[in-house]
Design a protein that fits this description.
The complex is a heterodimer of chains A (344) and B (164).
Chain A: H1 3-16, H2 24-38, E1 59-60, E2 78-82, E3 85-90, E4 93-100, E5 103-107, E6 111-115, E7 121-127, E8 130-136, E9 142-147, E10 153-158, E11 163-167, E12 175-180, E13 186-191, E14 194-199, E15 202-206, E16 215-219, E17 226-230, E18 233-238, E19 241-246, E20 252-257, E21 263-264, E22 270-273, E23 276-279, E24 285-287, E25 295-303, E26 306-313, E27 316-323, E28 328-335
Antiparallel strand pairs in A: 1-12, 2-3, 3-4, 5-6, 6-7, 7-8, 9-10, 10-11, 11-12, 13-14, 14-15, 15-16, 17-18, 18-19, 19-20, 21-22, 22-23, 23-24, 25-26, 26-27, 27-28
Chain B: H1 8-27, H2 30-47, H3 57-73, H4 98-108, H5 112-122, H6 128-135, H7 139-156
The chains are: A mainly beta (344), B mainly alpha (164).
């Protein structure tokens, strides 16, 4: 049997198979199903659920705690979780730090926000030659935590529904800007003083610091969706579709299919998943060069034009460094353990 | 099919048949092929307004089909729809030459990923690199899947002599 014979066989089978007439009603049903799934349930990926309650009372923050770390320009490394440990991936591969973590929440100018194995919020300072101060910020297990896309705000909800917001002037989130109790619903994402919550089947944009009423963005039944907030965009993921909303008006702007494992850029203008970048206003896609392969796992933006993507291939996980301006991705690490994870 | 003014209905009407044929080769089953194609087209329909190059929508649908199949073959083994083809020995009841029918009968019994690799490589004429990208696997895996698929087919049909 030659390859030509194989091609001929496949071609003759393709020609011979009887093509059915499209079932219009079945197709309409499927389209409706896909549309419903865009607003349907999915298991929240990064942020854990918190107990449902009512209201958040913002109190004056304690801004007296002095910063405990001195800003240092960190090396050009990507913080990742590798086999349960914080590791820094640079040009010479992955360097373990010895800090045990259960996940990464986000990264600021010179600190990485992690959840330790007991789910405490722990900030690990990055220095030009590795890590510096490691500080337990929460001092207790948390139900959920989030860092804004611009890395200037860190929030977490403790197991008693207490709400804690930390601001940053040096990347270390050492002073509290707001706190409250009886946080209602599930914290999904934060951006500046605003955040997204999931409460009684509704995804709400909360804007207490602006004196504005909560805004309903989407409704769905079941468990909370993955969501992101940055600039004037909110992203809500359902199924394999990411839907984008204008946070000024609450109107949906567009969506991206097959893009569930993506992330919103710090300005909210772009959504990246694997090698595909979607404009959150027009919905136009751009595929970056570099032959990114594998099933998308996660995405994290380093800055407004550069992001990291993890894909999985045959039990390995691959790390890709992608530049929107250069329209190109480059593989930077191959993890044979298959445990590599990014922030967010 | 090209043109920026192309509507989804026009696209579906024009491309249903060729896409169904691809779906059939990917699944080896008529019912599964229709299910797979309808599902991929529904996703495409919802996304239609944001697909910039409507002329490349074929590739978009094909990718959606392959992704859906990929998610199916990544499920636990017991959920993979192999070994359930109802009419082995009849090549799916197609009216093709006997030697083609015999070979197709064996192709249908390949694991889904192997079959998809052959379809992408030898029907869609994708390179090994492009096939790897479509399947979400390494190039080495494509080479390996192709090698083992051909080995299986040759082992199953050692005496097969295709007509000229």
């Amino acid at each position: 049997m030659t390859l030509t014979e194989l091609r001929d066989t496949l071609a003759s089978v393709s020609d011979a198979v009887a093509v059915p007439t499209p079932d219009a009603s079945a197709f309409e049903y499927r389209v409706a199903l896909v549309r419903r799934r865009r607003t349907a349930v999915r298991v929240a990926g990064v942020l854990a659920a918190v107990a449902v309650g009512t209201g958040v009372v913002l109190l004056p923050g304690d801004d007296t705690s002095p910063p405990v770390v001195t800003p240092v320009e960190p090396a050009d490394v990507v913080p990742v979780v590798l086999d349960g440990e914080l590791a820094l991936v640079g040009s010479d591969g992955a360097t373990p730090t010895g800090v045990q973590v259960s996940g990464l929440v986000g990264q600021g100018e010179n600190g990485v926000v992690t959840l330790d194995p007991q789910r405490h919020v722990v900030v690990v300072q990055l220095t030009d030659d590795g890590i510096g101060v490691v500080r337990d910020l929460s001092g207790e297990p948390v139900a959920s935590a989030a860092v804004s896309a611009d890395a200037r705000v860190l929030v977490w909800v403790d197991e008693d529904r207490g709400f804690h917001e930390r601001g940053t002037i040096d990347g270390s989130w050492t002073y509290e800007t707001a706190s409250g109790n009886r946080f209602g619903g599930v914290l999904l994402a934060v951006s500046g003083p605003d955040w997204l919550s999931f409460e009684e089947g509704r995804v709400m944009l909360q804007r207490p610091a602006s004196g504005l009423d909560p805004m309903l963005l989407d409704s769905m039944h079941g468990v909370p969706p993955n969501a992101a907030l940055a600039g004037d965009r909110a992203a809500i993921v359902a199924g394999d579709v990411a839907n984008f909303y204008d946070t000024e008006t609450g109107a949906q702007t567009t969506s991206a299919a097959l893009a569930a494992r993506g992330a919103l850029s710090p300005t909210g203008e772009l959504w990246a998943s694997s090698d595909t970048v979607t404009d959150t206003t027009s919905g136009l896609d751009r595929v970056l060069a570099g032959n990114v392969r594998g099933v998308p796992v996660s995405t994290w933006w380093r800055d407004e034009q550069r992001y990291e993507a993890v894909t999985k291939v045959d039990g390995h996980r691959l790390l890709w460094d992608c530049s929107v301006t250069e329209v190109r991705c480059k593989q930077t690490y191959d993890d044979p353990t298959g445990t590599l994870a990014l922030a967010g | 099919v090209t043109g920026t003014e192309l509507t989804f209905s026009e696209f579906m009407a024009a491309r249903w048949a060729p896409l169904y044929r691809t779906a059939y080769l990917l699944t080896g089953d008529r019912h599964d092929a229709e299910e797979l194609l309808q599902s991929a087209l529904a996703k495409t329909c919802v996304k239609w307004s944001s697909i910039r190059d409507k002329g490349a929508a074929d590739a978009y649908v094909r990718r959606a089909m392959v992704h859906q199949l990929a998610s199916r073959w990544r499920r636990p083994r017991r959920e993979i729809a192999t070994g359930e083809l109802p009419d082995r020995g009849h090549g799916g009841g197609l009216d093709v030459r006997a030697d083609h029918l015999a070979l197709w009968d064996e192709i249908r019994w390949l694991p889904p990923r192997m079959r998809a690799t052959l379809v992408l490589r030898y029907v869609e004429d994708l390179t090994e690199e492009a096939t790897a990208r479509e399947l979400g696997v390494s190039i080495g895996s494509v080479k390996s899947q192709t090698h083992h698929a051909l080995k299986r087919l040759r082992a199953a049909l050692p005496d097969l002599e295709l007509q000229p």
